[in-house]
Amino acid sequence: MKVSIIKYNSGNVQSVLFALERIGINAIITNNVDELKTSDKIIFPGVGEASSAMSYLKENGLDNVILNLKQPVLGICLGMQLMCNYSEEGKINCLGIFDNQIKLFPSNNAIKVPQIGWNTIYDLKTNLYTGFKEDEYMYFVHSYYAEIGKSTVAKTTHGLEYSSSLQKDNFYGVQFHPEKSGTLGQALIENFIKL
Amino acid sequence: MLTKRIIPCLDIKDGRTVKGINFENIKDAGDPVELAIEYAKQGADELVFLDITATNEKRKTLSELVTRIAKHINIPFTVGGGISSVEDVSILLNAGADKISVNTSAVKNPQLIKELANRFGSQCVVLAIDTKFEDNNWFVYLNGGRIKTELKTLDWAKQAVELGAGEILLTSMNNDGTKNGFAIDITKQISEAVNVPIIASGGAGTMEHFKDIFQKGKADAALAASVFHYKEIAIPKLKSYLKLNTINIRL
User: Fold this and answer.
1) Cis ω for the linkage preceding A178 (within 30 of 0)
2) Which of A13, A15, A115, A183 to mutate to test the interface with B (most CBs of B within 10 A)?
3) Which residues of chain B have a CB within 8 Å of the CB of A119?
4) Cβ contact (<8 Å) for A11 and B124?
5) B80 touches B49 (CB < 8 A)
6) Where are the beta strands (DSSP E) in A86-186?
7) Residue B45 counted as domain residue
8) B95 lies in a domain?
9) Residues near B226 by beta carbon (within 8 Å), at least 6 away in sequence
10) Which residue of A has its CA nearest to B40?
């Protein structure tokens, strides 16, 4: 099993690497096209700012590489958001794999932004959630969210209901951080590796 | 719904966990990684490591410790203590930290908050404030509570959030180490004045103190050290108690 983590100018790649190590997988961190193409599973992580991340992907030709991947790809947090159509963060067009827009949580007294902490995921679909019960807790850290759409495979509520997970063909995305979500997060990573 | 968070804090000196009272009388309290693993197992929602080492070797030993922690625990953690530059933050985030906290350096150079937020995103920039109530007002203190400033805590919190701080870790020096409860009034004032999450710190002694800081103090998270270190309050029991008291908690 060859698992690659896409290397680009986003933080927290190390945590994903360690999470994979904990389930016995030695992943590589790479932006090499051949390495990515020959991987069995690919993780597209991300913590950071959308427009600078998107510029980096384009400058390095990684946008087309990602679009043409045929193996299972898991976008995490910003990684998932970059796989959507458009992001309000920096007002940029993203990869367009998922037909969802990324918006800023409304600033009002009802909720805190960024959302930081553990929240539930529900209306679970796809085999990424095999063995999961509804309303399990996952760890979230984000100010922008994906709207509900036809690719939505898990929902979460923070002031409003949004997509906490997306899926289309071989592309999967999670807004939360499975690498930081305790044993259930680990179970999700294992499910992805088994796809 | 988003839950309230319980955050054990580990003060680190030369790679070991230590605990003092009112910022003084430092005692050894064990290996940080072992404690971190134990807390994660017990259901801690997050961890904070505050490094109080003051040696030249600090940066290297801290980043090595951060990597060791990140390898072993599967919940988020924040690292703080003496962080003063974009480079410091870059090293710690690359070592595996999820968030970093800045304190003295941000007061001395508020633009640092902006630089960090632009470079790494607000979500990983925690502003730590040590505050003390004196002459009818809450003031910001620096250097681990040793230096008083004329800055009012509420003003500083608002300014820092405008600059891009994604979270505020508020420690009341009047309450810290007393076990008489958290500082409810200033926590509530700040929580209502800014839109980012507030972590209340200092003064936890009983489970009721946690209930009060969430319900009366409007805190989003509560941080404590000694009550967890010395096993005076067990995290699972605390969380069940809070849940029984209708506080939204992850069990």
Assistant:
1) no
2) A15
3) 1-3
4) yes
5) yes
6) 86-87, 92-93, 101-104, 115-121, 136-142, 144-146, 152-158, 160-168, 171-174
7) yes
8) yes
9) B19, B177, B179, B232
10) A182
Residue of A nearest to B41 (CA): A182
Q: What does the pLDDT profile of chain B (251 residues) look like in tens digits? A: 899 999 999 989 888 888 765 555 667 768 899 999 999 999 999 999 999 876 777 788 899 999 999 999 999 999 999 999 999 999 999 899 999 999 999 999 999 999 999 888 888 999 999 999 999 999 999 988 889 999 999 999 999 999 999 999 999 999 998 999 999 999 999 999 999 999 999 999 999 999 999 999 999 999 999 899 889 999 999 999 999 999 999 99
- Point out the residues of chain A with pLDDT beneath 50: none
B159 part of a folded domain? yes
Could you tell me which residues of chain A have a Cβ less than 8 Å from any Cβ in chain B?
A: 11-12, 14-15, 18-19, 21-22, 47-49, 107, 109, 111-120, 137, 139-143, 157-158, 177, 179-183, 185-186
H/E stretch holding B55: none
For residue A27, the model assigns a pLDDT of 96
* CB count in 10 Å sphere of residue A80: 29
Q: Count other Cβ atoms within 10 Å, centred on residue B183.
A: 26
- Cβ <8 Å between A118 and B5: yes
Domains of chain A: 3-194 (3.40.50.880)
What is the C-alpha separation between B174 and A56, in angstroms, rounded? Answer: 47
Does residue B225 belong to any structural domain of this protein?
A: yes
A24-47 in b/e burial notation, b at 16+ Cβ within 10 A?
ebebebebeeebbeebebbbbbbb
What's the domain range around B232?
A: 5-244
Shortest CA gap B220–chain A (Å): 9
d(CA B38, CA A121): 26
ipTM of the complex: 0.91
Asked if B51 is an active-site residue, the reply is no
Q: Cβ separation of B197 and A119 shorter than 8 Å?
A: no
Decide if B2 and A18 are in contact by the 8 Å CB cutoff: no
How many structural domains are present in chain B? 1
Query: B137: domain CATH number?
Result: 3.20.20.70
B121/A49 CB distance under 8 A: yes
Tokens 């827009």 belong to residue: A101
